[in-house]
Amino acid sequence: MDTELQAHIDQWRGYVQRHRAISVADVDEMEDHLREQISTLQTAGLSGDEAFLVAVKRMGRMDAISREFALEHSERLWKQLVLVPEEPGSGTGNRELMVVLALAVVAALTVKAGFTRLSDSALGLNLSLLVLPFLAAYFAWKRQVSASVAAVLLVPFVLTALVVNLYPFEPEGATEIIAAIHAPILLWLVVGLAYAGGDWRSGRRRMDFIRFTGEWFVYLTLLALGGGVLIGLTVGAFGTLDFDIEPVIEDWVLPFGAAGAVIVAAWLVEAKQNVVENIAPVLTRVFTPLTIVMLFALLAALATTRSMTSIDRDLLILMDLILVLVLGLLLYTISARDPLTPPGLFDRLQLVLVVTALVVDAMMLAAMLTRIAEFGSTPNKVVALGLNVVLLVNLVWSARLGLGFVRGRRTFAALERWQTDYLPVYGVWAAAVIVAVPPSFDFR
Predict the structure, then answer these.
(1) How far out from the chain centre does Cα 251 lie?
(2) Into how many domains does the chain fold?
(3) Three-class SS of residue 61?
């Protein structure tokens, strides 16, 4: 089967997996049926593209998925071939909305109970545990995962809860803050396992989750901005009437709104994905050149520094955050790109971004090693050093693959596959930080 036809099938399967409450086994069965149809049509003399279009049209007569697929890809040829009447009265959307709202309310109540009963330090350690299990439950329900997969999803949440609550952290110590930062990273990848329906070995499903993460962040930001404006107007309106409702906002609205928004944003990505998919290319094309300019400016500023030990600790932390931002932008750009499109100007800009970030990362590593040799190690230094090494490996290989792609020697699929294969490394790193770093420094 040729590469282009396989890409069409992968895109169709990814759409089915993301948009329908359907088990992995059912998706496999549907894909087998689609492939049989294509094979039969190719035997009859149709080309790969023609066979794919006709096979999807035939499946569209049996299920509404192909119609949705055609509507989302409105500029593609198959819209004209598979646009079939919508089946009325299915009720699937309403049922899913009820599940989402129920999970959002339960998550909000859990967060509210956490705010009431937990100390500030304990709340920081457990905040992701109060919300993300419900997001994982939504995807487990939507993907109709098996009982064994559901049990696997539960284990990391339980283990993380035991570690962060049983470790004798020094109150407000460095290791406690480090664990609180890395717990959401680890648990977010567990959410990714639920999103993939338990099939985390599939590179395509990992890339779908990367795409979902970017789109979820966009929706969550929009919800936060809209909620902030609404709260500001409400407080102002009640203030003119001499009613102080800020305690109500702080005690009820903010905890409920924040927890509920995490679940609702995920549902919006699933329900309205085509809206954000139209925005994604614009966002990446705007922020990539801006980020390159920022990195060049930082490199110029660092070049004026006389000694690596004179670099401020806060600057090192900010630089790490910038590198994480660059990685997120790179992943989102890769997930939003059509893999069949030949390399162009924007791909060269992406390569410049990766190489510039690589230079910054190398300079940060040198500064951190110098500071450790000069002043000794601390939990923050060790974690920051490890993070930079993890990012360095990704950036080095990404630069190599990106250069090969723009020169026509490698396919875009190789770059995409590298990012999806590397994704579990971040989870392993976060787990190692949570479990190993605190006892190594006596939980200080």
Answers:
(1) 29
(2) 3
(3) coil
Does 97 lie in the same domain as 231? yes
In a domain, 24, yes or no: yes
**101 plus 233 within the same structural domain:** yes
Average pLDDT over residues 146-157: 94
Inter-helix orientation angle 203-240/313-336, to 10°: 120
Whether residues 184 and 261 fall in one domain: yes
Listed residues 237, 269, 301: the one ending a domain: 269
Domain match, 128 and 213 both: yes
What percentage of residues in the chain have a pLDDT greater than 90?
A: 41
pLDDT for res 437: 95
pLDDT mean over 81-102: 64
Q: Which residue has the higher pLDDT, 401 or 255?
A: 401
DSSP 407: T
Is 432 within the bounds of a domain? no
- For residues 68 and 96, state if they share a domain: no
Last residue of a domain, one of 59, 82, 105: 82
Residue 415 lies in a domain: no
pTM for the model: 0.78
Burial degree of 375 (CB within 10 A; 0-12, 13-18, 19+):
exposed
CA R_g for the chain: 24
Strands (E), 109-259: none
- The verdict on 7 and 47 lying in the same domain is yes
Full residue range of the structural domain in which residue 164 is found: 92-269
What pLDDT shows up at residue 130? 95
Give the per-residue pLDDT at 319: 81
For residues 421, 423, 428, 430, the Cα torsion angle rounded to the nearest 10 degrees is: 170
Token pair, residue 443, equals 């939980």
d(CA 333, CA 355): 16
Higher pLDDT, 314 or 166: 166
Give the Cα separation of 245 and 205 in Å (integer): 45
Is residue 442 situated within a structural domain?
no
Q: Which among 295, 313, 292 has a CA at the least distance from the CA of 303?
A: 295
Instruction: Give me the DSSP letters along 199-226.
Output: -TT-HHHHHHHHHHHHHHHHHHHHHHHH
Residue 227 or 51, more confident: 227
Question: Do 312 and 287 belong to one domain?
Answer: yes
Q: What integer best gives the mean pLDDT of the chain?
A: 83
Q: How many residues does the structure list for the chain?
A: 444
Yes or no: say if 17 and 25 are a contact pair by the CB < 8 Å rule: no
- Let me know whether 131 and 241 are in one domain: yes
Average confidence (pLDDT) over 35-64? 73
Average pLDDT over residues 297-320: 74
What per-residue confidence (pLDDT) applies to 203? 82
